[in-house]
Amino acid sequence: MDATNSNRPDDFIRDIVRQDIKTNKFGGRVHTRFPPEPNGYLHIGHAKAIWISFGIAEEFGGLYNLRFDDTDPTKEEQKYVDAIIQDIYWLGWDWGDRLYFASDYFEQMYEYAVQLIKKGKAYVDDLSADEIREYRGTLTEPGKPSPYRDRPIEENLDLFKRMKAGEFPDGSCVLRARIDMASPNMNMRDPVMYRILHATHPHTGAKWCIYPMYDWAHGLEDSIEGITHSLCSLEFEDHRPLYDWFLDELGIYHPQQIEFGRYSLTYTVMSKRILRPLVETGIVSGWDDPRMPTLSGMRRRGYTPEAIRIYCESSGVSRANTTIDLAFLEHCLREDLNSRAPRIMGVLRPLRLIIDNYPENQVEELDAVNNPEDPGAGTRKVPFSKVLYIEQDDFREVPPPKYYRLTPGREVRLRYAYLVTCVGVKKDEKTGEIIEVHCTYDPATRGGDAPDGRKVQSTLHWVSAAHALEAEARLYDKLFTRENPLDVEAGADYKDYLNPDSLEILKSCRVEPSLAKASAGSLYQFERTGYFCVDPDTSPEKLVFNRTVTLRDTWAKIQKQQK
RNA sequence: UGGGGAGUCGUCUAAUGGUAGGACAGCGGACUCUGGAUCCGUAAGUGAAGGUUCAACUCCUUCCUCCCCAGCCA
């Protein structure tokens, strides 16, 4: 069976869920969650994780929650909450009224912690952070118990209450689970449950000064919300015994944690550690720079939610950490854009073409197809006249092998217009640069077909000089030159692998007049060159386009081979 | 050198003891008013060695490689 392109994805998680439904494990329910920490922007890796959790719930007729895992006020901000909501909503998910905040459960978590203390399963530790680290041991040596580990329960209760009351400064003490300092799993060596942080929290303000750690909080959040399958990435596998331990000790509802492999993409990095300096040093224009792997960047670039969904569905789920080829993402993008993007003609690097035998002041309105993949998209009129612009690349005075565009003496088609034959060029006397191409046209070929049935080798796009709109095009390429920018050679830095050509700005493009009212976010295929979308920087005076992705370019491939 | 994971064409992913298949990328071709799209063809893989079996990607043993864990981050 072809699982890759199937409309019904299948993977080990879906197998488990299917089995759980069959055995009535959670009363037949499926309820998942996506738990972002609001400390940064979402990227394409998150989109995949969201697709896994939300998609599975959706497929099995279950529910999914959006929950902010906001347990560290020193890193979290409201602006991230807002941006994350916007991004996930843009992706097309609708969590209904199930928007939750872990911080709304702090009171309940506190009560649970008290229960654990009363069971003798948690204690307040006065050791400093450094001391705790020393006492924890190493990967090969067991840890040793803190001198405060056997504090009487009453004392722990009192101390914990006073921690909450704000009697102690940051870092003075913590609440720890009392498990096993000799466990080969470092996570089980009396993990910290609460630390003191006198900080303002974006959601709870100054209400709390003790904040729960991830391991303590996460299972409780899942339990409180009645999550059935708590899906997360592989690095949390070591934490599952702890997840289970807390829930079992408390004797409360126990969701099942399942881990999947992490996803990365070639030629990009997802890590904030790398991305942040790019933003801060101005190497990119912001978190929404169209070269960024952030969802806001991809949105500005012209990626569609549908393309991202195709990518998620088609790239599979497994327990292996994988690196997906950027070309595959782009393939999914083109697949979506090809079917939906209206075609227009736009010339990126204009070269004047003059039709010597065309009447001086004549203008014809020619019919052009809006989208050959979608007959319902109809046609439009495009003005044609004596002076046109064509692409510089579409003319060669001396053609290289296999070049079959315009060259002296050759006849080509101007798309939807006429067959024209090159009869000469005009060069700048000083530089020798070609500044004009002269052609003659065959009036009998109006619309682009010759009555005698003769064929031409190529069809060029064009715009009428007098009617064209000026536009700026921002051409994007991969941000890094290496498949894995983090795989740095000795003495090198990921910054050495930044692609110097990741952005090229063309300021004097010419596009057909039908684009006059194009609004920000609109997507087009510039025939023969690529998919473009209107950037928010666009204005009535100047259209600004982002190149989303090029068309597959066989000629570029041939040229590459010839070198 | 403690613990936990993962190894199938270059990449992603199927085959759950019975012909190692698909997708992307590559290569070649057909078609075309986008060198687009579409279609066809082609090369390429089970980390290694043993063992069990009529039969092993699948089960067993040993080994190798890669990833994660020593935050009062998530």
Characterise this structure.
It is a single chain. With 563 residues, the chain is an alpha/beta fold. α2 links the parallel β1 (31-34) and β2 (63-68). The strands form 7 sheets. It has a 7-stranded mixed beta sheet with strand order 12-25-26-27-23-24-13. It is elongated. Mean pLDDT is 96; it is low at 1-7. Helix content is 26%, strand content 23%. The protein binds one RNA strand of 74 nucleotides through α5, β6, α7, β11 and α12.
Number of helices, counting only DSSP H or I runs of 4 residues or more: 13
**Extended strand count:** 27
How many angstroms does the end-to-end distance come to? 41 Å
Q: What value does the average pLDDT take?
A: 96
Uncertain regions spanning at least 5 consecutive residues: 1-7
Give the structural class.
Answer: alpha/beta
Question: Going across the major beta sheet, what is the strand order?
Answer: 12-25-26-27-23-24-13
Instruction: Supply Rg.
Output: 31 Å
Q: Which percent bin holds the helix content? A: 25-40%
Shape: elongated
Strand content: 15-25%
Oligomer: single chain
Largest sheet features: 7 strands, mixed
